[in-house]
Amino acid sequence: MRAQFVLSEIGVGLRRNLTMTFAVIVSVALSLALFGGALLMREQVSTMKDFWYDKVNVSIFLCNKNDAETDEKCSKGAVTAQQKDEIQADLKKMDVVETVHHESADEAYKHYRDQYGDTPIAATITPDQMQESFRVKLKDPEKYQVVATAFAGRDGVQSVQDQRNILQNLFDLMNGMNVAALFVMGLMLIIALMLIVNTVRVSAFSRRRETGIMRLVGASSFYIQMPFIMEAAFAGLLGGAVACVLLLVGRYFLIDNGLALSEKMQLVNFIGWDAVITKLPLVLAIGLLMPAMAAFIALRKYLKV
After folding, report:
1. SS3 144
2. Mean pLDDT lowest for which of 127-131, 204-208, 279-283?
3. Is 99 helix (H, G, I), strand (E, B) or coil?
4. pLDDT tens-digit readout, 97-110
5. Burial class of 13 by CB neighbour count within 10 A (0 to 12, 13 to 18, 19+)
6. Contact 203, 16 (CB under 8 A)
7. What pLDDT does residue 16 have?
8. Number of H helices, E strands in the chain
9. Contacts with 72 (C-beta within 8 Å, 6 or more apart), sequence order
């Protein structure tokens, strides 16, 4: 096969269907950018879970004298020193527990003042209204239920809370956005495939006389189809390259500069450049192979002479 002929045919096809080729490039770029963005969003959620789940605790809140008057769980009165010692000793015996920290009412009050000291309600809170608690760090955050079962309802315990639940709504929101991005990506991908097939049809129809002559003089089907397949692959590769640029610019604008989320949300462990760069070869490969396969399937019908 003469490479010069194939390249010249590719150039002819792209010039003849310039508008549709541009539409293919744009649709492929958008769909692959959404695909790459969905992959990065999923990795961001995973990174945040690993980062935060390693820091969250199980909190065992103890009854105080106010709870004894208002909460049925504390109907036997405020927690006693003996009950606190027994709870702490039992926690340290558990295999799933890594560390145990006791927070007194005064410490809880200090933390509350540090966080909410400027609010009007903070002036009405006194140290004796704050709850003592045990902050329990687990070896495996998924083992929360083991601690909850052992201490919920125990004398002197008002409640057992898993701090992961505070973060779960955020993770659910991000996962929902990820699903929405994948849905839009699928829709854009279907549109891109339809455009590719239509572009191949138009190109094959406009050159039906040339392909008919080539078939009559003995050219193989692969030789005839190759220019059309490479046209689609080239357009898809350009779309994949644009998608890669969008992903890089998006990461730079959202995290490093522009919105600068890395500076405004320093407690969030954002994905690095390596996570973005490792996705680019996959985006380019899909951008190259997807249009080529679509063109090959379409040509099996439309290049029959």
Report:
1. helix
2. 204-208
3. strand
4. 888 888 888 888 88
5. buried
6. yes
7. 67
8. 12, 4
9. none
